[in-house]
Design a protein that fits this description.
CATH architecture: 2-Layer Sandwich
Number of strands: 4
Shape: globular
Helix content: 25-40%
Radius of gyration: 18 Å
Oligomer: single chain
Largest sheet: 4 strands, mixed
CATH topology: Macrophage Migration Inhibitory Factor
Mean pLDDT: 89
Strand content: 15-25%
Number of helices: 2
Length: about 140
């Protein structure tokens, strides 16, 4: 269950949806995320009320088509799978949204199963500790 945040300058709803689809498809293809496991926050910045800043770090000439993709997911994926994910996101973002791969900045933040709650204040992925309500099959609401 990755949580994806996408920020793009001057992106309308159509472009944001294309960017979200590209990232979701890449996650499914490269690291096996189920296609319906979609948790995304898509934000377009207009350059006036909300701003994205970027530079030409590492000699990459980005422009106002820049897209920042932040992925938070459970740890454990091998570096080669992450590299494949980066490549596939860049390819699909270009194909779906017309964004040049040089404008795609991606970060991954990893965490552990106990770091997720999908509702009801319960860490659904974490093993229940002995003596807790969850260890006895009780769901808190």
């Amino acid at each position: 269950m990755p949580l994806v945040r996408i920020d793009a300058l001057r992106a309308d709803r159509e472009r944001l949806e294309a960017l979200g689809r590209a990232v979701q498809d890449a996650l499914a293809e490269t690291i096996g995320v189920p296609p319906d496991d979609v948790f995304q926050v898509l934000t377009g910045h207009d350059g006036a009320r909300s701003v994205i800043r970027y530079d030409h770090y590492l000699g990459i000439q980005r422009d106002d088509d820049v897209v920042f993709v932040g992925i938070t997911m459970r740890s454990g994926r091998a570096p080669d799978r992450k590299r494949a994910l980066y490549r596939r996101i860049a390819e699909l973002v270009q194909g779906y949204a017309g964004t040049d791969p040089r404008n795609v900045v991606i970060t991954i933040t990893e965490n552990e199963p106990v770091d997720w709650s999908f509702g009801h204040g319960i860490a659904q992925y974490a093993e229940a500790s002995p003596g807790t309500a969850e260890s006895h099959g009780v769901t808190r609401r």
